[in-house]
UniProtKB/TrEMBL annotation:
Residues 254-327, 397-452 form the NTP pyrophosphohydrolase MazG-like domain. The lineage of its organism: Bacteria, Bacillati, Bacillota, Bacilli, Bacillales. One of its GO terms (biological process) is dTTP catabolic process. Residues 4-206 form the Tetrapyrrole methylase domain. SUPFAM superfamilies: all-alpha NTP pyrophosphatases, Tetrapyrrole methylase. It comes from Viridibacillus arvi. Pfam families: MazG, TP_methylase. This is MazG family protein. NCBIfam families: mazG, PRK09562.1. InterPro entries: 4pyrrol_Mease, 4pyrrol_Methylase_sf, 4pyrrole_Mease_sub1, MazG-like_dom, NTP-PPase_MazG-like_C, NTP-PPase_MazG-like_N, NTP_PyrPHydrolase_MazG, Tetrapyrrole_Mease/MazG_pred.
Length: 490
């Protein structure tokens, strides 16, 4: 098997080229370069060193991945016939995808690699910026990175920012987290005699003339808490501070039990914003729900039982395990099959040896009897305990209603309670059959009543100022006015 030697051309000009690398280039019989657009290659050409570039491959594809894959495929075909050298900018193992693809090919036994040195662009970048990487830094590819990957509290270096378009894409991605006037530094040809540094506000990043294939964009770490409010770790620090020794007395005293009602209230308030299709308030209310999650996580950490990472691991593991059609090789053709797989996986998770868990286990909700009723009936329906048509549901409701009416006349408080419970249970089942959330319906009815009664109260206060001064018919007239003013949606 012939050998493919990969060598790094360094990060800057010929003066910075390592002597060992220079000698190997002189001795090589056949040299291929990913791109000719590198200052070292101009000097090598004047000394009679010949090389062949893959620049023409870039013109054939719209994305970089197929470019790199074609380069690798071509190199593999060449090395079948003879030993060759492949030269890349910087160091072969730093931000060079073609080399990573070749390493994968080596693992598969397709090629024998010899990877030589070459200064990466990182050392001259750190030197130009006068920063110590021990503080923590991220190196990302400007063509593929996501704002979700960025840690605003670390040094951020963005490579592959080679023209105005790529700079514009980087700018838009960064503005998902950073303010538009956050300072960023454009570093060009670091370590060479042509080294240039220019610091601009983020919104001007794609207007800088210095951007070329030797450009790296540097984003300094955020040191002001108020500038890092889009960072998850900032919110976690806020909650930890609130619960800490110098924090808020109220937050310090909270327990899982004391926060239960707040969790329920915040979820209901969010559901209301969904009904109102109010995006701005959705953001606010989801933040309040998230606050409850982080508070419970912090309490768990303070007490030494669990922390936020435990929660993330548990839910991530569950989502991967319950979606084998996404994260594994299971095939599904419909939502019904997805649901069937989900239930099958849940039963397997809850299995206790050979004794299956009761079907209704885990469906009780202490904070909502309506939701518990819905959960029970949904679970029973999934195993076939269900009317064959909606007629059966309505007949059951009529039966339970008549039984309640009978107990109103002839029964005791206990039997009336029992029969009225059956009526409510059947109503929840009707709601489930027609894909209505009984919980949401009740919340909507409560809001509607509060709104209309508020109007009635306002009329009373504007008039005789005492409910007792009005007949029921007069109060009911106010109620009807409220209905006309707000419609059925209020």
């Amino acid at each position: 098997m012939h050998q493919l030697t990969i060598i790094g051309l360094g990060a800057s000009d010929f003066e910075q080229l390592q002597i060992g690398v220079y000698r190997k280039l002189q001795q090589a019989k056949k040299i291929y370069v990913r791109t000719i657009d590198h200052p070292v290659l101009n000097e090598l050409a004047t000394e009679g060193i010949e090389f062949e570039s893959f620049d023409h491959v870039y013109e054939k594809h719209d994305d970089f991945r197929p470019v790199y894959e074609e380069i690798v495929a071509t190199l593999l075909s060449y090395v079948e016939k003879e030993d060759i050298m492949y030269a890349v900018p910087g160091h072969p193992l730093v931000a060079e995808l073609t080399v990573q693809l070749l390493i994968e090919a080596e693992k598969e036994g397709k090629v024998k690699l010899n990877i030589e040195g070459g200064q990466s662009f990182l050392d001259p970048i750190f030197g130009a910026l006068r920063i110590d990487p021990i503080d923590g830094f991220q190196l990302v590819d400007g063509t593929t990175f996501s704002a979700h990957e960025v840690n605003m509290k670390q040094h951020l270096l963005i490579a592959q920012v080679y023209d105005t378009f790529s700079a514009s894409e980087v700018k838009l991605t960064l503005m998902e987290k950073y303010s538009e006037d956050y300072p960023v530094t454009i570093v060009t040809a670091a370590g060479s005699k042509d080294e240039k540094l220019r610091t601009v506000p983020l919104y001007e990043l794609d207007r800088a003339a210095e951007i070329d294939n030797l450009t790296t964009v540097y984003v300094p770490p955020v040191t002001n808490r108020d500038e890092a409010l889009r960072e998850w770790s900032t919110f976690r620090e806020i909650i930890s501070t609130l619960r800490g020794p110098n924090g808020c007395p109220w937050d310090q005293q909270q327990t899982h039990e004391s926060l239960k009602r707040y969790m329920l209230e915040e979820v209901h308030e969010f559901l209301q914003t969904v009904d109102e299709q109010d995006d701005e308030h959705m953001i606010e209310e989801l933040g309040d729900v998230l606050l409850q999650v982080f508070l419970h996580a912090q309490i768990g950490e303070d007490e030494g039982f669990f922390n936020l990472e435990d929660i993330l691991e548990a839910i991530s593991t569950k989502m991967i395990r319950r979606h084998p059609h996404v994260f594994s090789d299971t095939t599904v053709d419909s939502v019904e099959e997805v649901n069937a797989n989900w239930e099958k996986i849940k039963r397997k998770e809850n299995a206790n040896g050979e004794i299956p868990e009761p079907l209704l286990k885990g469906e009780y909700r202490a904070t909502s009897s309506l939701q518990t009723s819905y959960n029970y009936q949904r679970r029973a329906a999934k195993v076939g305990f269900e009317w064959s048509s909606t007629d059966g549901v309505w007949e059951k409701f009529s039966e339970e209603w008549q039984e309640f009416r009978t107990e109103v006349t002839n029964g005791t408080n206990e039997t009336r309670l029992d029969e009225f419970g059956d009526v409510l249970f059947t109503l929840v089942n009707i709601a489930r059959v027609y894909k209505i959330s009984a919980e949401d319906a009740m919340l909507h009815a409560n809001r509607k009543f509060a709104s209309r009664f508020g109007y009635v109260e306002a009329q009373v206060m504007a008039g005789k100022k005492d409910f007792k001064a009005y007949t029921f018919e007069e109060l009911d007239a106010f109620w009807n006015e409220a209905k006309l003013q707000g419609g059925n949606k209020v």
